[in-house]
Amino acid sequence: QVSTKTTDKSYYATTPIFYVNADPHIGHLHSTLLADVYTRFARLRDPQRAAVMCTGTDEHGLKIQRVAEAKGIAPKQLCDNVSERFKDLARAANIDYTYFIRTTEDRHRVAVEHVWRELERRGHIYKSSYSGWYAVSDEAYVPESQVAEVIDEKSGEKYTACTETGTRVEWMQEENYKFRLSAFREQLLRWLGSSSSPVQPLSRSTALLAALEHPLSTDLNDLSISRPTSRLSWGIRVPDDPEHTIYVWIDALVNYLTIAGYPWKGGEEFAQGQVWPPDLQVVGKDIIRFHALYLPAILIALDLPLPKHILTHGHWTMDRFKMSKSRGNVANPFEAMELWGVDAMRMYLMRVGGNSGGDADYSAAEIERFYRKDLAGQMGNLLNRVTTKKLTKKLESADLMHTMPSQLEDADKTLVKLLEDLPATFEEQLSAFEIHKALAAVFDALAEANRHVQQLSPWLATASPSDVHRALFFGSESLRMAAVLLQPFMPTKAAQLLEMLGVPAERWSWAHRRLGEGGVRTARLPTKEHLWPSIIVAEAAAQT
Ligand code: ME8
To answer: Which of 20, 273, 396, 539 is the most exposed, having the fewest neighbouring CB atoms within 10 Å of its CB?
Structure first.
């Protein structure tokens, strides 16, 4: 008997699976990082509950077939090569994924075929002919109203392009299988508009609903879900009709089910209800419709539960243009992590681009500013201050470092209030997918702690024993709390910081996130190492 009690269900977070037509860039890292942060956060908050995070590569389709042809290699070879790069990226960025799925895996084919047969059995698939514009790079049909003839500035070549994305479109005429998406309109609208707000942030949910309500909207028309094998051979064949290949997006969307053990016929790693549905699906804003309309409609058709949250994020741009493999204006995440360090990049991407609302322009100058001002300037500086031997020696007893002052003064009030509120604010903001606000709350507390130390100036001969105690206790406690909370964001640096502060390992847990819960510090202070060495800034400046 399979248990479907929600308490038994693992936390489940997914990233989009990435096309293997080119190497990963910062945008891919950003999506993957969001899922990693939320999975780590789930584990931190509830260590008893299993958490599954998956990522992977989307390996079928015309786009991949053509890139492989152009390179003169077999499609599978291209997939093998590039999927390794995405795995390398995940490893390099300390992404703690549970599964890396590749859509060329056999178990995935089994799941896709099963979905197809089930949809067919339930009467949701029919055959029809289609003619219209097709954008190969987006693997999608484009309505007549969204195409125009353009002239290539350099070559003078005339071609037809999608007015929204600027990508080249081709005229296609073919017989397709279709999925009765239109039949699920009411259920989808109800789900999207429900109080559980599956699409986050809300602004995107509202925009999507408004677009669907538009009288000319074609978003919920029946969906073509196959391509003639003569044109697209690199994919999974339609069961019992090898003349047709399953549309790559249907193939790709099923990956989330494959991971969760679908079709649950026995022998899979996960039973029904153990992992499915996802608690969080991270997607870039370019692929919302696939995740908020097509996959949910398929799930409704299959009588399967819908995902809880779809977190949509904006794009990283370079000089205001979307960073994209096709455009070639990409930042190399391996180089950036090499230069700034893994956790500095994780923090930067989440602090600046974690604002899931809008796009963010990627700039080396911004990373430098963030590193210098916030990481080294606030966190590093405070750490130096509270771990200076000259200062810690001024404490009347080493125990005072972890002993809450019995008497508070006016100068402490602002900081104490911030620290008292911090864990709840941080948790609320993360739960509301306001990642940048959660991080801002931590940095606000650190900035206030620096001001507090400055005001008490414990290094002065005139500082009273109480000033020294309060400055060092609240300073180190601010850092300890920040480190506990930031573990999902900067796992290595948070651990380093907790060690440098001498916080015993059993106090690194979520249960000890509040002010004064750090326990007795083991005497590991002071240290010569710098948490955020300034040498990095100088080296990076020399290279950029
Ligand atoms: O769309 N900024 O794959 P893909 C931020 N295979 N994120 C970006 C980005 C940018 N400039 N560029 C890409 C596909 N991304 C399909 C997905 S899922 C079943 C199939 C991120 O390789 C963002 O999450 O084009 C986007 O949705 C994803 O990479 C698309 O990667």
So the answer is: 396
Q: Which two tokens stand for residue 411?
A: 């100068």
Given the CA of residue 256, which atom of ligand 1 is nearest to it? 19
Which spans in 218-322 are helix H? Answer: 248-253, 255-259, 288-289, 295-301
* Nearest alpha carbon, ligand 1 atom 8: 27
Atom of ligand 1 nearest to the CA of 323: 11
Taking the model in full, what pTM does it have?
A: 0.93
The ligand 1 atom at the shortest distance from the C-alpha of residue 282 is: 24
DSSP 31-95: HHHHHHHHHHHHHHH-TTS-EEEEEEEE--SHHHHHHHHHHTS-HHHHHHHHHHHHHHHHHHTT-
Give the pLDDT confidence of 133-182 residue by residue, as tens digits: 998 877 788 988 899 999 988 889 999 999 988 889 999 888 999 999 99
Least trusted range by pLDDT, from 158-167, 187-196, 275-284, 449-458: 158-167
Separation CA 44–CA 503 (nearest Å): 17
Q: Which residues contact 448 (CB under 8 A, 6 or more apart)?
A: 414, 415, 418, 478
Greatest pairwise CA separation for the chain in angstroms: 87
pLDDT at residue number 165:
83
* Nearest protein CA to atom 3 of ligand 1, as residue: 18
Ligand 1, pocket-test mutation among 14, 19, 137, most atoms within 8 A of CB? 19
The predicted model gives 172-200 an average pLDDT of: 95
